[in-house]
Amino acid sequence: MVAAEIRVTLPDGSQKTLPKGSTAADLAKAIGPGLAKAALAARVNGEVRDLARPLPDGATVEILTDKHPQALDVLRHSAAHVLATAVRQLFPHAAIGFGPPIEDGFYYDFEVPRPFTPEDLQQIEAKMQEVVAADHPFVREEVSRDDAKRRFTDDPLKLERIADLGANEVISVYTDGPFVDLCRGPHVPSTGRIKHFKLLHAAGAYWRGDERRQMLQRIYGTAWFSKDDLEGYLRRLEEAKKRDHRVIGKQLDLFSIQEAVGPGLIFWHPKGAMLNFQLRRFIEDVILERGYQLVYTPHVTREELFLRSGHLPLYADNQFPPMAAGEGEAEDVRYRVKPMNCPMHILVYASQQRSYRDLPLRLAEIANVYRNERSGTLHGMLRVRGLSMDDAHIFLREDQIEEEIFRLLDIVDLVMGKTFGLQYRLDLATRPERKLGDDATWEVAERALEGALKRRGVTYRLDQGGGAFYGPKIDIKFNDAIGREWQGATIQLDYEQPERFRLEYTGADNKPHRPVMIHRAIFGTLERFVGFLIEHFAGAFPLWLSPEQVRVLPIADTQVDAARALAGRLQGAGIRTHLDDRSETLNYKIRDAETHKVPYMAVVGQREAEAGTVAVRVRGEGKKQVVQPVDEFVRKLEEEIRTRALKPLI
RNA sequence: GCUGACGUAGCUCAACUGGUAGAGCAGCUGAUUUGUAAUCAGCAGGCUAAGGGUUCGAGUCCCUUCGUCAGCUCCA
Fold it and tell me: Which three-class secondary structure state does DSSP give residue A126?
């Protein structure tokens, strides 16, 4: 006897009885007409599915509406299908690659004889509007492998995907109007649900991300539930553009890249150099207080060093080619500019006998290294060929790992969290498939990292199998002022290089032992970190970092002497001050100082000159001004700089 | 490295289908002496990324190189 009804559980715990064969759409209807209308998909036993699929008996079901983040992915995935539907109508012979939802949007890859032009995109978008207006239902079908092959005989990309599907995987096909696609789903009920979308740009993308395969043409788009969301997103794109460190870097004269010298090589102009200098000073102070020692090591080395370290065969693509030796040396001695510092610091370690009492030995160097990054990957200061790493290598015993990681996380928190006020996240990456060393060693290392993370009481994500082949690591990711995620610091354990260089220390047992090594960077590189800071602060740096901290503005020539005295006084206190004694209006000078993001404008008029006061205007806070005695102004500035305050104290 | 788009004054951008390279801002000079986001006038500024070609004539069309941008790939 087959039951004629099924029973499902709703998120609030209540149960609903429905006729057998009922779909999630039926369930939504049974709950209420409002929900039926808003429903986009359903989560059935945790899996997001189409509304039109029959519900299994006993399932836990949640109807997803535009309030659920997962529904947004479904919407975007469906939008990708609408895109493909439109492309197929305009370019009937386009082969169809992948079309997934991504953060903030979706894309679809096509194999077409010529790349898409901006005009094509406009046409495609217009066609998409037609597809949406037609309100085609998304119809799901399960098909056999042979059937699937038959349906896509003239689409080699789909055939390749079918061939890759596992033997007992369900093969499903979705149809919306004229378009049929091999697809796992799920989708929104019909194309009419996709109202607020926009195509953004087209670019080449390798089939399956493999640069040896053919290049497809990828179209990126974005889709949202409401017009407001869509417009908000487009506004965020605009905002991000305004914060672009390449644009601000030029406006504020922070840095340049010179074609005469080469791409990916940064010229730090005086103002950018001040940022660089302050960050160096800060991080060096922090680490010197914590038992690190600074070293300076050569920029070029015989190439054998990188052979021995194991870098060369693997890393050669990222290194600049070798240089011939200088005169008087054997011709076959070749030199390389260094792409990383670890072998150098290892040589410092190995330059003498080490005792267990010396450990941990922490060697730090803000060093310039050069990597021959592929030309297409270069991007302003964020991806360069000349890198200033705030590097350090810590040599220690295995039993010291946990404590040392704990201390490192303390530095990370001090710099990222306390000083820059950033929200950051830690990822623990554990042993990958292909690895060096035995499992017992990995076990110890991973437990030590985990122990330190737990001791700090921070939440972290586990990136199973994401470690380097020579050791596990902790990656630090953080968000900027407009919510974008950045990857900065990494803390990496290394068993490989101490082995290759046969590093040793004498233990309490008077026997030789092999130390472990930690590679770590806090900022990562000064290039990337400053690029990040420019975008994060949109050029309005906190006082301690600002290249120009105060601009003194006399109102008229009669106050220039008083203004010069004030500027001298500030400079005497170590405050980076500029006197603007140009024969311009106050309005002009204020506008100039504001556009140059100077934190404080010190206005000196007749009243201030006579009273020994200063009228302070705070960057970005408009007309609100504070008139105060010069002494008080200096005191506040000093305090704000000393504490590295993020917000003005005035 | 690959695909596509692009490269005009320090910056942002003009210059119809090939016909004498132009504006605003910045700079310089002068006038002005200013009370919280642009005072006025004048001047100067270019081998149109570089090299080659087509043409009576090239910023504009073609080729090569370099660089930039959007992505792919890679990554601090």
Answer: helix
